[in-house]
Amino acid sequence: MGTSLQQKNIIDGFRKNDPEILKEIYLVVYPKVRGFVIKNNGDDHRAKDIFQEAFIACWKNIKNDKVMTNSNIEAYLYTIAKNKWTDYLRSADYKKKVSANDIGPLTVVEEEKNEDETLENKKKALQDAWEQLGENCKNLLNMFYFERKSMEDISKVMNVASTSARNQKYRCMEKLRTLSLEIKSNGK
Amino acid sequence: MENKQGHISPDQQEQFEQFLLDQMSSKERTAFEEQLKSDKILKAQFIEFREIFGFIEEQSLRNKMEEFHGMVKNEPKGSVSIKPRLYYFQIAAGIAALVAVSAWFLFHQTPNEKLFDKYFTPDPGLPTVMGTSDNYTFYEAMVDYKQGNYDTAIAKWQGLHQLQTSNDTLNYFLGTAFLSNGKAASAILFLNNTVQNKQSVFRDDAAYYLALAYVKEGKTDQAINVLKSSKDERSKTLLQELTN
Fold first, then answer.
1. How many domains, in total, are found in chain A?
2. TM spans, by residue (chain B) (predicted)?
């Protein structure tokens, strides 16, 4: 694994949300995770869910400097996904459906800590606020914060002056922030 | 800098962004970190901003993963089921019917329709992972387009087109999507918009597909006129065939 891309490039790519790097890792590791999940009482749908959650966890850990720069990211991502599936198989939710004897001999290598309740509430409020945000705001925020496009490039895409794009970005961000605060304080 | 809790100024927002996007010099970075240590309100605002920043990135990544997932090659299921013999007979009957229908179309096509089929292959679309496309909806529609889900792609692009009627990229792909979906008359409307745009990088390709749309509609003269304005090699070949 990981012969076509240098590990450092992969880590840099994850930090900068490089779409080529993210895509390559996704397409290389997913089939392996899918194979594992299907061999262990899962299906395509579950494989996709578990893999995407693992991908997010891996991406966050890289961004938060929790991963050594020489780590093999494909192996790391595969391990997170495998552990998440193992956790699921051992969870009460799964055991309700299947006898515990059916669970294969899997080893837990890394435990993911659950996010605390406050963080979950904040996230839920942000999620609700995001859904209320207009499509144009979402696109603008995506271009700036995820795709890391410059304001000049964004203004060209939006066909507006750079200052106007900048103001719009500010307003969109403030709207998302205040909406989420409102939702949180209203306990919606 | 005066900080009122609950409000982040545009300048403040930009400072947070520069820090998080690693756009500060080491001197600026140190100064900002010092500021965070001494100003509790600023620190609280920064933590809140960082959370929102991270949330937006995560939302975007989730959308991106859906796009990647569409590129995963279909693999066989974990187990192979044994189909009853009738199943294979049904497939064989289906293939036979398809061959018969294709043969009927082949022998009942007009010369223009035959010419269209000879020259038309859908535009392969833009690479959706290079960051050249402009937003989610556009990306998503491009994935649909590449998968041959033309109706879905058209619906999404039409939504965007209402906001940007003169966008050459949107006009071009709406045109090629309609044409790939067999709707030449609709394709003509959109492709014409791109052909009119002399600056567009899609102009020559749009001219070629517009000519093919005219061919399909039986409007050979209009196809010839459009092809004459294009420098594209494919257009020259098609023009030669139409004028011979």
1. 2
2. 86-107
Q: Report which of B115, B111, B112, B122 is spatially closest to residue B209, judged by C-alpha positions.
A: B122
pLDDT per residue over B29-81, tens digit each? 999 999 999 999 999 999 999 999 999 999 999 999 999 998 887 655 443 34
ipTM: 0.85
CA distances, A19 to each of A23, A49, A77 (Å): 6, 20, 17
Q: Distances from the Cα of B39 to the Cαs of A160, B20, B36, B45, B148, in angstroms?
A: 36, 18, 5, 10, 56
Long-range contacts, A2-8 (Cβ 8 Å, 24+): A2/A72, A2/A73, A2/A74, A2/A75, A7/A69, A7/A70, A7/A71, A7/A72, A7/A73, A8/A69, A8/A70
Q: Any CB–CB contact under 8 A between B48 and chain A?
A: yes
Q: Which two tokens stand for residue B241?
A: 């065939």
Is any Cβ of chain B less than 8 angstroms from the Cβ of A95?
Answer: no
If asked whether residues A124 and A62 sit together in one domain, one would say no
C-beta neighbour count of B213 within 10 angstroms: 29
Set of chain B residues whose Cβ sits within 8 Å of the Cβ of A123? 55
